[in-house]
Design goal:
By secondary structure, the chain is an all-alpha fold. The protein has 19 helices and no strands.
Length: 444
């Protein structure tokens, strides 16, 4: 593409490998998420609709609750050993979990043990995906410069969406034509192995290597008389801990990160029950419905990534935030007047178009984190925001809707949307201050 013309061959190859790897990783991760309406019936005991909704929420959340621990683990590896190591390990973990899931006995065969085994596999997938997409986005942020940095990182997000599209496509084929669902996970395992091998070609980012070298020089001076390996390790960690991120910036980052999990859950998960109960949708029809939605989601990710090469990414994110706020205010009224699946589909498209994702401004958020704490901090916030939001939305919306009708959505959607807009404004001010500082230096 012409927008990547300024990149050298190594940069283009790295971005291509990371996009392929992210696509493969998210194909595997989202395969179960979108086949859950079918697989939950195979791995969970049958019960009343209310209990089934809670069990579906449990299966969905199990992938995300453990993610903060994965963020700390892979963030540490990425910030101390390297970005490359992280993305290779996580892809291999996904391959192993998919292989196991492809051969798991069902609930009818081994009872409740099937429920716990499939949940365990989902936890491993959640852990591996944690080091994957954030590691790839950090890598691309560190090897590129604006304005090409914004679409380059945006295309990593688009690759994750493409993985979801293919996962839904495979799920739809498997369910529509009655193929064995295990075939899909077998394909996923093979794909993950290919991704791991491809990523061995990556080189470490220059920014990370430069910061590591600076840290080592400082340690060589301070440790000249120090012989204890343990003492040297402690001093290394102390120096890294001294790298600070402002409290307001830290909390703004967290608040902003709550936006996309809410948008994703509302579009792909929340409307599953109404479609089943009100319009008699089968699991196969829901998967096909979500497959079409995922194509629109991919389109919006690509569109906003491409135009960020010419348009300030903050303008794009802020506009989507404002449209999203209007959509959330009107959402209960819109659901109440829906009288067909087409109406619900159009509503979901609006929510996708105004989804509260930080892309294409995400690289600016990452650049406000110190380099040697970047992957740990970004991964942990990414994981924490999704764990919290998916827990809150999955369980609370079941009770809020039963108690207050669709107006109960406001108790979750409005605070998150307002917080998202506030957080984006904070980072825009930080970026404008940096630009003004550079202009003053040039003028001087």
């Amino acid at each position: 593409m012409s927008i990547f013309r300024s990149l050298n061959q190594n940069q283009k190859e790295a971005i291509g490998l990371l996009q392929i790897g992210t696509f493969l990783e998210y194909f595997d991760l989202m395969l179960y998420v979108h086949m859950a309406v079918l697989l939950n019936e195979l791995f969970f005991p049958k019960s009343d609709p209310h209990t089934e909704a809670l069990m579906a929420a449990f299966a969905f959340c199990s992938t995300y609750v453990i993610r903060p621990f994965g963020a700390l683990l892979f963030g540490y590896i990425g910030d101390h050993i390297g970005r490359k190591t992280t993305v290779i390990i996580t892809t291999l973990m996904m391959a192993v979990s998919c292989t196991v899931m492809a051969s798991l006995p069902t609930y009818a065969q081994i009872g409740i043990a099937a429920t716990w085994l499939v949940t365990g596999c989902r936890i491993v997938q959640g852990l591996s995906s944690m080091g994957e997409i954030v590691g790839a986005e950090v890598y691309v942020t560190e090897i590129t410069n604006p304005p090409v940095r914004y679409p380059a990182v945006g295309f990593i997000g688009a690759a994750s969406q493409l993985g979801s599209v293919f996962a839904l496509g495979i799920a739809s084929l498997v369910t529509h034509f009655g193929f064995n669902w295990r075939i899909a996970f077998g394909i996923g395992a093979g794909i993950a192995v290919i991704g791991s091998v491809a990523r061995t070609r990556l080189r470490e980012t220059p920014e990370f290597l430069e910061k590591i070298q600076q840290l080592r020089k400082k340690l060589d001076i301070e440790n000249a008389q120090e012989k204890s390996i343990f003492a040297k390790a402690v001093k290394t960690q102390k120096l890294i801990n001294q790298l600070k991120m402002g409290k307001k910036t830290f909390w703004s980052y967290i608040v902003a990160s709550f936006g996309w999990p809410l948008s994703f859950y509302l579009v792909f998960m929340y409307f599953t029950q109404p479609l089943k109960l009100l319009y008699g949708y089968t699991p196969e029809k829901i998967i096909l419905h979500n497959f079409i939605l995922s194509i629109f989601s991919l389109f919006f990710f690509i569109l906003f990534s491409v135009i960020s090469f010419r348009i300030d990414p903050f303008k794009i994110v802020k506009l989507r935030g404002k449209v999203c706020l209007a959509s959330m205010i009107l959402l209960p009224f819109a659901i109440n007047i829906c009288s067909s699946p087409i109406h619900i589909f159009l509503l979901q498209i609006v929510l996708l178009a105004s989804g509260m994702t930080l892309l294409p401004a995400y690289p600016i958020f990452l650049k406000n984190i110190p380099t040697l704490k970047r992957l740990t901090t970004a991964s942990f916030i990414y994981a924490l925001s999704r764990a919290v939001m998916y827990l809150v939305t999955s369980f609370s919306l079941v009770f809020l809707t039963e108690t207050f009708g669709y107006y109960g959505l406001w108790l979750i959607t409005l605070p998150i949307t307002v917080g998202f807009i506030w957080a984006v404004n904070h980072f825009e001010k930080l970026e404008n201050a940096k630009i003004e500082e550079k202009l003053d230096l040039v003028a001087a």
